[in-house]
UniProtKB/TrEMBL annotation:
Keywords: Cytoplasm, Nucleus, RNA-mediated gene silencing, Transcription, Transcription regulation
Protein name: CCR4-NOT transcription complex subunit 11
Subcellular location: Cytoplasm; Nucleus
Example GO biological process: regulatory ncRNA-mediated gene silencing
Source superkingdom: Eukaryota
A Gene Ontology cellular-component term: CCR4-NOT complex
Membership in a protein family: Belongs to the CNOT11 family.
Length: 267
């Protein structure tokens, strides 16, 4: 269910007030219960609240449910910008760091306005890398919000202190090319770690894929002028010489040499 603001359901609220002659509490509860996929027939919310023991026996185990409903309705009336959050979405956001979500679950999340949710409560800094590895496409949407939060430094440190993977490279690239501001120090450390990750892998297909991904990552940042060549030329040159046999690395070396010549870098 997509998050809805009070303004989005205001017309329905007014209709309940005028056409059905309901008081504000009843009209708001009608909307709330409908959004909650209620199966309470045609009983009014006031009927339910006043006769909760007989009409809602299942709630006997949760005696605060009616009070919770009243509180949410009160907030809905008083705050025109209030957003009704879906508990199922909150659960999926928490699960995203522990398991691979299904296509249906990903689609459900994609339809939500995730910025309305307290994402830092569902995804701790030490879980950000699990999120990226398990659910990369969801991470493309969520990580930018995390890096704009008041815990951004903790998330950045977690990214720097983890193994560099193809998924994490793609997420960081997405962040950088979509104007999320990261410090030059973070970018430099991350690129250095990326290059080092290639050296540490054993020879084989996995290492080749990592080298190619790092090559594309660095080349794209250079072409989009996100990083200055003068700060990276020595590292890039050494990286290219080590892996020149792999496709794409020679192109990066030529680009680096051309950029260096244009900027008149002296080494």
């Amino acid at each position: 269910m997509a998050a809805k603001t009070f303004s989005e359901i205001y017309q329905q609220f007014v209709s309940n007030l005028e056409a059905k002659k309901q008081d504000p509490f009843t009209a708001s509860c009608s909307i709330w219960l409908r959004l909650q996929d209620s199966i309470l027939d045609n009983r009014t919310p006031q009927d339910i609240c006043q006769n909760s023991d007989s009409l809602l026996p299942a709630l006997e185990e949760i005696p605060n449910s009616i009070d919770t409903l009243r509180l949410k309705v009160a907030r809905l009336i008083d705050d025109p910008n209030i957003v009704i959050l879906d508990d199922n979405i909150s659960l999926l956001l928490s699960d995203a760091c522990t398991r691979i979500l299904t296509l249906k679950e990903n689609e459900k999340l994609r339809m939500e306005s995730l910025s309305n949710y307290p994402l830092t409560e569902y995804i701790a800094p030490n879980q950000i890398n699990r999120l990226i590895d398990l659910n990369q496409f969801l991470a493309l949407d969520i990580v930018p919000y995390l890096l704009r939060s008041n815990k951004s430094q903790l998330y950045l440190e977690a990214l720097l202190n983890s193994n560099i993977t193809i998924h994490s490279l793609e997420v960081i690239h997405h962040i950088l090319v979509n104007n999320v501001q990261l410090s030059p120090e973070f970018i430099h450390y991350y690129i250095s770690n990326s290059i080092r990750s290639c050296d540490e892998l054993e020879d084989g297909p996995v290492k080749d894929r990592q080298v190619k991904q790092v090559t594309r990552f660095i080349q794209s940042l250079l072409e989009k002028q996100i990083i200055p060549m003068k700060d990276y030329f020595v590292e890039i040159q050494s990286f290219c010489i080590s892996f020149m046999k792999l496709k794409g690395v020679a192109n990066l070396f030529r680009l680096a040499s051309q950029e260096a010549q244009q900027q008149k870098i002296n080494f």
